[in-house]
Amino acid sequence: MPPAPGQAGTVGKSEAEAEADIEAEAGTEAEAGTEAEAGTEAEAEAAASWRALGTLVHLVVTEPRCLAAARSLLEADLAAVDLACSRFRADSEIRSLRASGGQQVSPLLAEAIAVALRAAELTDGDVDPTVGAAMSAVGYDRDFEQIQHTGPAAQPVTVRTIPGWRQVRLEGRTLTMPEGVQLDLGATAKAWAADRSAARIAREAGCGVLVGLGGDIAVAGPVPEGGWRIRVQDVTGSPDDPPGGPYALVAIRDGGLATSSTSARRWQRGGDVLHHILDPRTGLPAEPVWRTVSVAAGTCADANAASTAAVIRGRAALGWLAQLGLPSRLVDATGAVFTVAGWPDNTSELSQNQLAGFMHLAQQR
Q1: pLDDT tens digits, residue range 245-254?
Q2: Is the per-residue pLDDT at 218 higher than 90?
Q3: Which pLDDT score is estimated for 313?
């Protein structure tokens, strides 16, 4: 069940390491907007934080005795995802892919690609996994921590053709894609990994769990009293510090919450200020209409697909998210806050039906 003001463990979450938007007092990505204040009102919960996949990892469990086992499971999961999906590792499986009439990929990579293609379909191509070459062209060709944040323009930033997600076919574990396609799963892999690991930890460790990977938060298993509290804000900071600007405190009981941001993961080349969310129609960073977009959905993967697409759609995102019925909070470049589809006002709890927008859309297709 989704956001509603809560009382239990707080988490913060922010995307892109999110330095910008969701700080969950319970545990979400902390880089751009959602950060789980792994706070636990309580002694009844236990938490741990570290870095992996180029972002902040936040883990909260409802029973302290489960923390060590949960962390072990999560570390193993993230290591496997990194080896399969990282665009920045020479030894990753995705880097070994070549144009082919049909190549076998591992079950893990096949699942990750399937999630990316589903996101592309549900967003009408706004979230496109074939932006890999374009992403490198604008300078995002290594872990973000290694990117020089300012520098001269080595070459003009120009429009670049994106091959398009429809050029990629996946049947079981058989992947087919034409020459020139470089897959980038950065828009979907962390959210999917959060969903996957949260479900596994709840199942194998037998406790309630919140997994936050940057701005992507997923929860599973038994829920703390009052739900998993998450502070969503536009200015990134420590969950232990008072919020540095407007914020919303919400609580989720299942599913996920994701924040996408154009103010996190930015760099400058000459006169161009760039960020990591590309519009596949131009091959360039999306216009920064929205500083951050936070969305709650039945899964973190769906929430993230919607928040990313909303950044790309600009003002049209308000009507699109409302039509889908996905509770969302959008902050524009001036700092004005917009909420749609029942995003909680700290006085009411969202119903389970409010998180099912993408599921309904998928069933209609």
Answers
A1: 677 889 999 9
A2: yes
A3: 94
Contact 20, 264 (CB under 8 A): yes
Q: What is the pTM of this model?
A: 0.80
Structure confidence at residue 133 as a pLDDT band (50, 70, 90): low
Alpha helices in the chain (DSSP H): 67-85, 107-122, 132-137, 189-205, 300-313, 317-324, 357-364
Answer for the pair 248, 231: CB distance below 8 angstroms, yes or no. Answer: yes
List CB contacts of 8: < 8 A, sequence separation 6 or more: 26, 40, 41, 42, 45, 223, 224, 225, 226, 227, 228, 229, 251
> Does residue 58 or residue 29 have the better pLDDT?
58
Radius of gyration of the chain (CA): 19
Question: Mind giving me the DSSP string for 3-66?
Answer: -----S-EEEB-TTTBTTSB--BS---TBTBBB--BB-SSTT-EEEEEEETTEEEEEEESSGGG
Residue 201's pLDDT is 98
Sequence-distant (≥ 6) Cβ neighbours of residue 209 within 8 angstroms: 59, 60, 61, 62, 66, 70, 198, 201, 202, 219, 220, 221
Write phi, then psi, for 53 (nearest 5 degrees).
55, 30
Give residue-wise pLDDT tens across range 238-280.
556 666 667 788 999 999 999 987 666 544 555 555 545 888 8
Tokens of 321: 């998210």
What lies within 8 Å, CB to CB, of 256 at 6+ separation is 191, 194, 195, 216, 217, 218, 219, 296, 297, 298, 299, 300, 301, 302, 303, 304
Map out the domains of the chain with their CATH numbers: 10-66+206-364 (3.10.520.10)
Q: How far apart are the first and last CA of the chain?
A: 24
